[in-house]
Amino acid sequence: MPTNLLTENQTRKLKKLGINSTIDLILYLPNKYNDQTIIQSIQNLKIGEISQIQAKVNDVEVIYRPKKNLVLHVSDMTGQMQIRFLHYFPSQIKQFQSADLIRFYGEVRYQSGYKEMIHPEYNLVNNLIPLSKNLTPIYSVTKGLSQGMLRKLIRKHIDYANQNGLFSDLFSDFYKKYDYPTFEDAINFLHEPPKIKANNILDVQNSKHFKRLVYDELLAQQLFLRKQYNLLKKNQSPKFKNAKLSKKLFLEQLNFTLTDSQKTVLEDLQNDFIKGMPMNRLLQGDVGCGKTVVATMAAIDCVEEGFQVAFMAPTEILAEQHYEKIKTWFKDAAYEIILLTGSMPKKEKLLAYQKIEKGNANIVIGTHALFQESVTFNNLGFYIIDEQHRFGVEQRMMLKNKSKIKQEYEPHQLMMSATPIPRTLSMSFFAHMDVSTIKELPGGRRPITTKIYLDDKRKQLLNLIDEHCKKNNQVYWVCPLVEESEFLDLETVSDTFKELSGYFVNQKVGLIHGRMKAEEKKEIMKKFQQNKIQILVATSVIEVGVDVPNATLMIIENSERLGLSQLHQLRGRIGRGEKSSFCILLYKHKLSSAARLRLKTIYENIDGFKIAEEDLKLRGPGELLGFKQSGIPTLRFADLNRDSKILEVVRNDADKLIKEQDKNINEHMKRWLRNYEEIVTT
Ligand code: ADP
Ligand code: MG
Hints:
Layout: H1 8-16, H2 22-26, E1 32-34, E2 50-63, E3 69-76, E4 79-85, H3 90-97, E5 101-111, E6 114-118, E7 121-125, E8 136-138, H4 147-163, H5 172-177, H6 183-191, H7 201-205, H8 208-233, H9 244-253, H10 260-273, E9 280-285, H11 291-304, E10 308-312, H12 316-329, E11 337-340, H13 346-358, E12 363-366, E13 380-385, H14 393-404, E14 412-416, H15 423-429, E15 434-438, E16 448-454, H16 458-470, E17 474-478, H17 486-503, E18 509-512, H18 518-529, E19 535-538, E20 551-556, H19 564-571, E21 581-587, H20 593-604, H21 608-624, H22 644-659, H23 665-672, H24 676-681
Parallel strand pairs: 4-6, 9-14, 9-15, 10-12, 10-13, 11-12, 13-14, 16-21, 17-19, 17-20, 18-19, 20-21
Antiparallel strand pairs: 1-8, 2-3, 2-5, 3-4, 5-6, 5-7
């Protein structure tokens, strides 16, 4: 920032607001506007309306009942009223006593026979100071940086930037084509919109001026991600032919046929493999749509060409489950399939390392232990990451670097998401990837009846559990953990476990939670899978893709604490078999309105795509994708629901600019991506 325009103290205060550069400051938009363009007469003021008056002070009074207040008696030509301050500085008394005229802006109330404003904004004026023709910006401020001060600072920097052409338009052709104002005009408008053009923040956000910022912001995001995409595609990767025969054999031993959607997606993957450049694809679809089998079939192409496949899952339970399943699927093939997880005995691990390094292991399934220091692949050709959102950026980085060792090739990469991702999200935040979507569930959606109960119906629930158990079905009882109070919640699961074990003496009740050793967890899951445990009390560790088709009832305690996608994931653990299933959401009294909305959404919807759309509306993309700390730039102005049309246009424009190698691309990204230097070098 230009140091001559700011004191050190101001710089520090701005930092507190997240403002670190001139452009940050200029783009720090008001969160509302005051209409101080007109003055109303006291006589005509309406109770409850926000208005501005211009009055002289007749008397300044400090009253002590009920509390110490400062009260001004003011009047204009038409009448008189009171202004009340509940907090004030002694210096203000003098200021008011000696004032000529004051403009007060605030809500009009009625108090013991008088019109009154409490804590209005005010300006000392005289008759010569004209009224503004523009709305007055109100910024969110911080202690020690007043509204007026911030207003001045922003104005100063806008003028400075304009005079020095700091942010002159880079892509005028596009801006003209869409009839957007220049950046300079847009910024002037957004900070102080002319009253004749806008009345409030909604008008402002619907204006061309605001859309210009939305466009610029999305353009920066798309340029950044599409450049990454293109860069990756410049690398070389091994080509894998479609191994038709092996796939035919694979399909013959499956006890189901692929859905059309699965077939289409498999073709996407096959097409990526023959291009000689790395696959960089996101495979998404609703819970239970059958991503695993598609990824596994793609792996065949890789193994048949003599390359290794790595299949990484976020938890040991899930890795183990994939391992068992994939081993069965390939029982007739001469593939060596191995498991590698952190909790395996050292000896077994060493053996696994060897097999991986020598290239004997064709398919390696595991947790992130797969990409530890000591693991070196002989020739990794394809890696699959299940439930990609559960891996942090660092882990993904490690994986990327790891996978390059000992080969000139970049391996193909397939990410899988746990729940559906709305189209606008995949178009924006996943622009650095190709995206394939499995659109249907095998055999259609099996019915799940969802019910919402207040948490005082335990007795009835016990009967319900009993019914399911009598039919030899299985039951999940979920007690979600909340991070801050893990101990407390652990008690809840243990208590519930004891309660249920005491009641159901003829059924085996199991307990599983995150603090157990991996071995123990596996043992429990195995027993549940084999129906040796019929009722499983669990924390949200079972959230991830656990697959036990015989489970038909799920009870979720404290469901109001869980997010939409978590609830959807959890519920997706039932309704996997032929029998109809039930999900009971228990909640505690006093639901917040957000929680109410979440439960309503889950209750009314079973389609993961719809739920994801709602989730996006409720939480916004940053939260939804969980990359608050991931370094991926979030969006400040664009709203993916509202601005989806702009997004489509921007994607095309970004690709065009990159193709033409436009010289202004980097400058635009520098302006718009907050941590540009950081993210471009990592
Ligand atoms: P997700 O996409 O949520 O990871 P999975 O891959 O775990 O789903 O598949 C869910 C279940 O459906 C698994 O038991 C899987 O074997 C089975 N499955 C997958 N594809 C089909 C299909 N086309 N027909 C029937 N069952 C299928
Ligand atoms: Mg899965």
